[in-house]
Amino acid sequence: MLKNESIRGGQTIGRVLTIRTSAILASIVILLAASVLVGVARYAEVRGQIGSDNYNRIIEQKDLVADVLPPPSYVIEAYLHVLAAVIDPSAAARELEEFNAHKTEYLERLGHWRTSDVGAEIKRLVLNDSPLALDAFWREAETTLFPLLLKQGARDEAAIKASLGRITTAFEAHRAVVAKIVEAAVSAQGSIEAGVAEEMGWILMLELTVVIAAAIILAALIAGMFKRVIRPLDRISTYTSRLAAGEDEGDVPYRDRSDEIGRLARSVQVFKNAAQDNLDRQRQIAAEREENARIRQEADARIVAQAKASAEAIEKLGQALRTLAEGDLTCTIDVQFHPDFETLRQDFNHSVGKLQSAMQAISSNGDIIRGASGELLTASDNLAQRTERQASAVEQTAAAVEEVTKSISLTAGNADEAGRTVRHTGEAAERAGNVVRQAVAAMADIEEASHNIANIIAIIDEVAFQTNLLALNASVEAARAGEAGKGFSVVAQEVRELAQRSAAQAREIKTLIANSNALVSTGAELVGETGRTLETIVAEVRNVDVNVSSIVSAVKEQATSLKEINRAISDIDNNTQQNASMAEQATAAGHSLAGEVESLARMLGQFRLAGNTPVRSGHAASAGEPRQHRPAPRATGNLAVRQDAWTEV
Fold this sequence. Notes:
The protein has helices spanning 2-16, 19-47, 53-68, 76-87, 92-114, 120-150, 157-244, 260-325, 342-481, 486-604.
């Protein structure tokens, strides 16, 4: 019973879950299984790499290096350098350097082991016991042995031997600690390898369990996919093939499922229903096709009858149109057409009647147009003659005004030129006045400079007088000096003569400057008088310029007024010429209108109207013959003639 309930529950779940959901769940399960396998494999790789071949090869290489090179934590090389220094004291300095280098390397490796993940016992031996045993070793070598070996002079062999013994004792203690470290490390390595081997055993069991579980889940997923997807698709494919062959297999299977197979089955059911509807529709179309064939036969019979009636109507209409083309406007179609074409016959008769009425109206208006055109020709001829006389008079008036305008313009130009000449004269006089004022200022400057020069010359005269006195005193002193002052006396005499000549020349220059000052004063007065005269001339020239400018302005205004009068007369002349041209055009239009009226009358004579009489073709009235039976209509708009326009010029 429980088994049946579980089966029904599984089927219910299978119906609820879609194929997409099932595929997603299967993919998730497979990914989880793969992830577990990968994780277990990675964990096994990390935890079990100690016993691998690569690990063993790496250990062998490290063992080889350890066998070849002594480790830094074992100070045997430092001890060897101590022994080498004792054997060869000459190399003690070099051996001391090597000893210190090994000590530095040992201390650096102690820092490495402080942060390493080794057992507490091993770390105690490496970090506590070994350095404690080596303290005496380092101290004895650095403070006692090497100073004895590096000491100059005779060697103290007893002291060296005693110090070497203490170093050897310290090294042996260190060596014992190293042996304990090696024993503890080998023991710890064995324990680690045993734990790894045990851990690898249960990791392998876990991998096998995961692989078997994944294989079972994958097989279950494949079986479920075959049952829920492949087999239903095969049945639906077979049903669709039979349905396409025309076989009725009933309802589509799996329509009650809620997954993609159910939707596919329902879609196939829709196609089946559509195919059934299509078959019913084709039967209905066949019935409608038969009904349409019957209706088409009846329509063809009606079309034949209508075509016959149409041919008869066209024949009658053609005869009437040919009669109408011959000019007989009295023709009508009296035979009734088929009801479909009866409207066409009535429209033709109505159109012929309208055309006949229009032709009669045109014929009756032709006489009126002929009379009006005769009167229009007479008026146009009179207007053309009067306009020609008026145009000739206006042209003469325009020529006379043009001559007056040219004369006034020439006078204005001459007056303007005279104004410019006067202005130029005034400007030249002003410039001359400026020059005279500058000359007066220059004369004043020259007079002042002459006074300054006179003062300077007076100073020079006074200096020459003082120099003469000094030279005279120098001559007297030279004479007193006797023979020793002769040379100085000669020089003093020359200076005295030079001073006298300078005084004479200064007096002459002073006289000349005084004469120049008198002439400059006279010239300044004359130049000033000239300046005042020029100022008077400039004032008079300005008055003349003002008067000439007034004359020029008046002449220009007269010239402008005459030009405006000339333009007005020119416009009147142009308008008169245009009027004459328009009168000639009106006359020509009147003659053309008379000809067209006569041509229209002849054309109307070709038509036959009611009463079986052709239209009368009259002759146009002569241009000068008045019509007594009806006055000519008054022209309006642009063609209207003003009564005052007929006055003789």
